[in-house]
DNA-directed RNA polymerase subunit beta
Amino acid sequence: MSTNNNNQEAAKTREEYKKTSSSKPEKVRRRRIRIRLIPIWLRIIIVAVLIFLSISAGAAVGYGVLGNGQPKDVFKKSTWTHIVDLIEKE
């Protein structure tokens, strides 16, 4: 009977060895597949639009509040030609 008992223990040991050797280590992280909700090309367009809006809003606030003018006048061509003339005039 002791031979049968030893075989059973050896079989358990082999089965445990197979389970541990075939399984992945516990600390190995799985690589997650990232699905982007917003594509990269759309992100670039959104960033460009936000930059344009922030520059426009900053110019309107700067011209209207700091320059004591009308904020909507910043979008007129005559305002910018006047500013360029002031800068280029020596």
